[in-house]
Amino acid sequence: MLAAALVALAVGATTTGNPGNRIATATCNDSLHVIGQPPPPARTLVLGRVRLPRPQDVLHFGPRVSPGAPVFVKHGWSVTPGAPVVLEVPGRYRRAVGIAFGRGRLGVPALRLRPCPGYAKPWTGWPGGYLLFKPRCVPIIVRADGRTTRVRLSIGRRCAGT
Asked: Is residue 148 one of the residues assigned to a domain?
């Protein structure tokens, strides 16, 4: 099932922007549909829009599929209706960490999440996760509604100071 989700994401992936600066985009058509599940409480959302793990929540770092290959750490994304949201790996981490979406050894460095309209879904969720070579504390830049923040993800180990 995990492989099917990754293939669906890769096939559904689109890119936007000029050719030198394209950002992969996940749309409403790529999303998961969970019947009857209410939206997450606003107080738990990053910038009031995006559901991500809290820094104290350590994501499971699984086994390596093949020597030298990155490990896939499963954790999808959820967004409330509205303008698209962008998740981005900071430049200095892009050789070690990527967003598991689309093709490429480390997925993509940035992902635009274009949620379904509010009349269709109270929130939109996508399967996905992160690709990395070793457990680490990973900063992710989140952009929503003209605001930007950084969220630290504890992947395979807890981030210091949490």
From this structure: yes
Q: How many domains does the chain have?
A: 1
Residue 161, domain member (yes or no): no
In a domain, 98, yes or no: yes
Residue with the two structure tokens 């992710």: 140
Tens-place pLDDT, residues 26-39: 999 999 877 777 77
Of 23, 22, 27, 21, the C-alpha closest to 8 is: 27
What's the pTM value of the predicted model, to 2 decimals?
A: 0.83
In tens, the pLDDT along 74-101 reads 998 999 999 999 999 999 999 999 999 8
Structural domain that includes position 141: 2-30+45-155
Of 53, 40, 48, 18, which Cα lies nearest the Cα of 146?
Answer: 48
